[in-house]
């Protein structure tokens, strides 16, 4: 995991005009971030393919195209910091440090999965790396993140809570209540709206009575920042500022990452609400991984063959993850009622 | 009635009912998340937006409490909204408007208003959607005076009961099982209603009364065939309405068969079968009972993701067969 | 009922510097408003006394001190316009045109009450004058008012819906969802926050992460106006503008009336959260009725003895109302289940 | 245990339990609306804020969904919040966090977390607060796996069960009847627990088992005295826990008395008595039953404001006496 202390190591490049992350983080961190972005994309492609083959059931929500947002937000976080995630949460999970083996195993419904096969994609979590879980309820994680921040403040753990949610979620009452309480109590929490223009089929224009979600921050007297969610450094810079503010005890912030999902909403999407042109434009001109790779090369941090090596190692990890998942045991029917309550001595 | 009868799926039947209601009455509108161009998460509204336009097929923001409340306010003041929850689980976000407002408003105002709102709740497990997208919550609303709560099990009934619901002056809650949407069955054309509050005997029998709801009606009927092959004659009742429950039909049947089994997908404890059992145990049918009243309900767990666990969490045909066999043979 | 058309009659006074209502409304309307403000206060004093004597059970929330807000908002409304009200709703009910006889009867639990004795203070309503009801759920009326506005727009009735709510209610998720939808759909609804500084014992400072509730209007792209809620004319002017805007199809507005309740929150209030000085200051220096009477005299619209006559007639009406309530029959136990469902032919 | 026993009111007993828990464990915090300087709508928290300060006796904004969710999030991450709903009716606003989150989180995450949150719900009628402030909604939460749901009926039990709840790693929901708050009874000093999941026989008897909950326990006991004077010997069981229900205690009693009556304030249909009845009707006690199982529950109406109607809407002593008499004498 990237640590804030990593920033104290020698930065990857010199020069006052370089974007934030190149000034702040060492080379390994930057390459690690690239690797994770690839890992997210390949994980989701692998999951998608496994789904098509009938190896995974249910539904899933892919975040392909949104990797810079997940990764950029998590970059300044430590393993101890906690996140709440969403139905579109694979990227958050990996960015925060989860192992794709156990994620695949979960999607395959196996006991080795992060949720012992009980949760699946929509509830993917890895508490050991601070991910309190994806959430099937839009907006469900918002108050929970505030609760995590309350614990951090009350027990003085120094942890920060980060709450991912979508543009659609910003119209839930939970959004309003959570942001208001976080601000009134000055809690160490960062609200991250991944605005991919649609909540399912409904565009923000048709659902949201304000131009930018970040504009709503003023209603809670907290900073609201808009960033290009497809530029890793921009996202990380905003995250860094908000996380540091939270750690200093100055309270919550709202970050809006403008981004886009390439795939349909879920596995049942006739795609009637967006144009092919719009999708093409985002895929061809604003891909977060391509843009990041271009910068890494431009600033002399990585060469093409190094990037190729990362891709290859990711492909291997994915393949191994799927094999692990396939080979893992399914839960026993007799264990159906395990984990409903905490087993007590 | 001589209306032509076609095979339609359950979701087509709902869509047809909504279209008929909207054609007949300008005050009928549809509200819900992604029911417009998307056609609804389960394609129930389908292309109705093309026919009736976005003013009458309204995509709401993701705001279940507010959305349901808008429907309630619209109903009190003159519209006839049909509000779709994308999943019945999200009712948990709107219980305040459903229960504290819609159900009670007429009573609290001493009869000065009615609240003719219809709400649709796609529920049930079996799609791998896990704990927050698979619940069967009809028992909650069945507990609430002021509401009517229905669970049609066939395309025929869902069309007729939805049309009855739209015509009803009071709030009607429709629980639709997601696995029923693709199920086909005969559906008459045009307008007809199936009364709210009446159960239907789907199969007559002498040895045991099985009262089932929603998807479980079909499982119970399948089980009854297996049992018939073994010489056991099972009566299967489709409860259809949770509130008000059809006491007479159930009690008459139990008086005939002397045995009762309830099959329902909601969590067993405090689920619909608890009421059925208690209703019979306090009725005159008690004296006719030859055996304990058995309930097969959902497991006392959230719905798990793994498909085998998921199946194990709700009644399945073999389990129904086994339980019925034991009950008829006196093994319990 | 005051009608907007009333504004077309000869105004009560001439002069460009006069406050809004004196320019807009005829004398009868202004004196009618004064009478209603007295009626509200005396109704509540009467209810309070009846409660003390054990004639009324349950609890009640008095709006004494807030009369200008209820009356000013309702002044530009017609009988057809609809309001949703709150637990502190007696004033709204009277301002909208209800008969105090039937209100007392309701409080006394009688069949002649507006709710046939089923509702009591917390559910007081008079649908015939457009009051859809007080609400025991803080924030409960917000989406309902939006629904009423949706009906008005869809059926082109020309009606406006007005939604009263408190400062405390503004932190409910329902507030957020209702204002957002009203704005997205440009519905003819006016949101009226009666900010009396406290939600029960909790001051807005401790509960609300923004200085003024009206500041939150920006989050819904609607106008947000702050008025002195104890000045009838200011309230009516803001209401008039918002109602006209709504009628023109331009969408919702938010009005914040800064006001104060003299009594405790309800009948069980130890009053530990506000100072005697604060209460005294509002009662002595900012009373809405006194301020209105002073203006009426100052602008030559009413003389002291005319005002005295109004008071006397109000006192009579209150006494008669209480007598009517006392004399009315209680519901039959056998009718317990009436009104649960609509009786059908 | 030799702790001194004093007379305390039910609300004092709750307050004492909370104080003991907070003294013992820094992680225990109280959250709710107006629980600070106001002392809570029913003065249950009283002056605890003076002792523990506003950081541990936290007034929340009027945001039930968010407030409950914050408590859930805090519980998952290390605090032990006790969250007070001002009225149990407002649970309708927070069902999403209670049911979709708190109850399911451990299961959905395959055991990776626990959610040690306690929520308190002042409920019940009898205060003239009408339909939106008088409900008894324990059946809703009793239907939800993952929750524990309790309804202590005495000062002694509420203290001990609240302390058990705080120590419990899973979410525990406490339904407190508002009319109990002022009721006094013996309460030992210091720390003790009363187990969740165990019913208590409050009065032994041979002729009839009455299982009652919360305030109805006291009405049932009063009725039992009247019946005793008439020569009828009624056993009264205080159910205490709705989930998990104490099957054994109830079934043993019914095997002894051969008759069962359930008395509860929640709406009769799909209320707690439905489950009690069904649990017995499917158990081995069925064969011991000499009479139908009778339920006295709340009327199928919202709670009315008028005090006489309000009383008529829930079971009262004379009705309990009459129903028990009929049942014992075989009049039904
Ligand atoms: C409370 C609730 N309402 C509706 C849904 C169904 N649903 C799942 S995702 C989604 C869209 C969410 O949009 P957004 O927050 O923008 O996230 P995105 O899918 O775009 O990442 C909807 C409507 C849900 N899961 N929970
Ligand atoms: C949903 C809900 N939460 C809490 C309450 C209890 N309660 C009744 S009034 C009130 C304070 C409301 O404050 P505000 O909105 O400012 O209105 P005010 O009483 O000041 O007029 C509270 C907390 C309630 N009735 N409903
Ligand atoms: Mg989105
Ligand atoms: Mg207030």
TrEMBL record, chains A, C:
Signal peptide residues on this chain, from the entry's feature table: none
Keywords tagged on the record: Oxidoreductase, Thiamine pyrophosphate
InterPro entries: DH_E1 (IPR001017), PDH_E1_Alpha_Subunit (IPR050642), THDP-binding (IPR029061)
Keyword presence, Oxidoreductase: yes
Pfam families, sorted: E1_dh (PF00676)
Positions of the Dehydrogenase E1 component domain: 35-333
Cofactor(s) needed for function: thiamine diphosphate
Taxonomic superkingdom: Bacteria
Reaction(s) the record says it catalyses: N(6)-[(R)-lipoyl]-L-lysyl-[protein] + pyruvate + H(+) = N(6)-[(R)-S(8)-acetyldihydrolipoyl]-L-lysyl-[protein] + CO2
Role this protein plays: The pyruvate dehydrogenase complex catalyzes the overall conversion of pyruvate to acetyl-CoA and CO(2). It contains multiple copies of three enzymatic components: pyruvate dehydrogenase (E1), dihydrolipoamide acetyltransferase (E2) and lipoamide dehydrogenase (E3).
Name of this chain's protein: Thiamine pyrophosphate-dependent dehydrogenase E1 component subunit alpha
TrEMBL record, chains B, D:
Swiss-Prot/TrEMBL cofactor(s): thiamine diphosphate
UniProtKB keywords: Oxidoreductase, Thiamine pyrophosphate
Alphabetized InterPro entries for the sequence: THDP-binding, Transketo_C/PFOR_II, Transketolase-like_Pyr-bd, Transketolase_C
Keyword Cytoplasm: no
Class in the EC hierarchy, top level: oxidoreductase
Transketolase-like pyrimidine-binding domain span: 8-183
Gene3D superfamilies found in the cross-reference section: 3.40.50.920, 3.40.50.970
Its EC number(s): 1.2.4.-
A molecular function (GO) term: oxidoreductase activity
Pfam families in alphabetical order: Transket_pyr (PF02779), Transketolase_C (PF02780)
Protein name as it appears in the record: Alpha-ketoacid dehydrogenase subunit beta
Lineage of origin: Bacteria, Pseudomonadati, Pseudomonadota, Alphaproteobacteria, Hyphomicrobiales
């Amino acid at each position: 995991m990237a640590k804030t202390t990593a920033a104290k190591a020698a930065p990857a490049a010199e020069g006052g005009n370089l974007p934030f992350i190149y000034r702040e983080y060492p080379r390994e961190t930057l390459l690690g971030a690239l690797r994770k972005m690839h890992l997210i994309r390949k994980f989701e492609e692998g999951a998608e393919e496994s789904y098509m083959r009938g190896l995974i059931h249910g539904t899933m929500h892919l975040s392909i195209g949104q990797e810079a947002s997940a990764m950029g937000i998590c970059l300044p976080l430590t393993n101890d910091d906690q996140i709440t995630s969403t139905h579109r949460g694979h990227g958050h999970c990996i960015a925060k440090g989860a192992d794709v083996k156990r994620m695949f195993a979960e999607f395959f419904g196996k006991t080795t999965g992060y949720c012992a096969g009980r949760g699946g994609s929509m509830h993917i979590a890895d508490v050991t790396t601070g991910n309190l879980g994806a959430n099937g309820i839009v907006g469900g994680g918002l108050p929970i993140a505030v609760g995590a921040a309350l614990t951090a403040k009350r027990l003085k753990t120094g942890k920060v809570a980060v709450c991912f949610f979508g543009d659609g979620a910003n119209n839930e009452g939970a959004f309003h209540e959570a942001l208001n309480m976080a601000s009134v109590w000055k809690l160490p929490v960062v609200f991250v709206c991944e605005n991919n223009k649609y909540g399912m089929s409904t565009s923000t224009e048709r659902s949201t009575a304000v131009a930018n979600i970040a504009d709503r921050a003023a209603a809670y007297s907290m900073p609201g920042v808009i960033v290009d969610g497809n530029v890793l450094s921009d996202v990380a810079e905003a995250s860094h500022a908000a996380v540091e503010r939270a750690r200093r005890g100055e309270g919550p912030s709202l970050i809006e990452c403008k981004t886009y999902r390439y795939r349909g909403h879920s596995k049942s999407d006739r795609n009637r609400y967006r144009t092919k042109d719009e999708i093409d434009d985002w895929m061809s001109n604003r891909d977060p991984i391509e843009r990041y790779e271009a910068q890494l090369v431009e600033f002399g941090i990585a060469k093409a063959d190094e990037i190729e090596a990362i891709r290859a190692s990711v492909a291997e990890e994915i393949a191994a993850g799927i094999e692990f998942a396939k080979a893992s045991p399914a839960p026993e029917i007799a264990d159906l009622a395990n984990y409903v309550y905490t087993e007590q001595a | 009635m001589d209306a032509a009868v076609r095979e339609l799926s359950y979701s087509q039947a709902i869509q047809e009912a909504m279209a008929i209601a909207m054609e007949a009455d300008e005050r009928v509108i549809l509200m819900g998340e992604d029911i417009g161009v998307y056609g609804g998460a389960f394609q129930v509204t389908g292309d109705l937006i093309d026919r009736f336009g976005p003013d009458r097929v309204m995509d709401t923001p993701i705001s279940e409490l507010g959305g349901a409340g808008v429907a309630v306010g619209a109903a009190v003041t003159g519209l006839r909204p049909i509000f779709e929850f994308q999943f019945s689980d999200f009712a948990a976000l709107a219980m305040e408007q459903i229960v504290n407002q819609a159900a009670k408003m007429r009573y609290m105002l001493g009869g000065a208003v009615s609240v003719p709102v219809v709400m649709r709740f796609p529920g049930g497990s079996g799609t791998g959607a896990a704990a927050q997208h698979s619940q069967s919550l009809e028992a909650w609303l069945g507990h609430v005076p002021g509401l009517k709560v229905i669970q049609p099990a066939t395309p025929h009934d869902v069309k007729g009961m939805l049309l009855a619901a739209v015509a009803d002056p009071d709030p009607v809650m429709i629980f639709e099982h997601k696995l029923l949407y693709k199920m086909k069955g005969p559906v008459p054309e045009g307008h007809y209603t199936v009364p709210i509050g009446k159960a239907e005997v789907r199969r007559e029998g002498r040895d045991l009364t099985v009262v089932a709801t929603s998807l479980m009606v079909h499982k119970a009927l399948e089980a009854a065939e297996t049992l018939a092959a073994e010489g056991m004659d099972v009566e299967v009742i489709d409860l259809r309405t949770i509130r008000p429950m059809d006491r007479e039909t159930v009690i008459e049947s139990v008086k005939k068969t002397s045995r009762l089994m309830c099959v329902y997908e909601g969590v067993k404890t405090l689920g619909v079968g608890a009421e059925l059992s208690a209703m019979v145990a306090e009725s005159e049918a008690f004296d006719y009972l030859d055996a304990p009243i058995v309930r097969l309900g959902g497991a006392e767990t959230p719905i798990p993701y793994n498909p085998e666990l998921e199946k194990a969490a709700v009644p399945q045909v073999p389990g129904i067969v086994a339980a019925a066999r034991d009950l008829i043979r006196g093994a319990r």
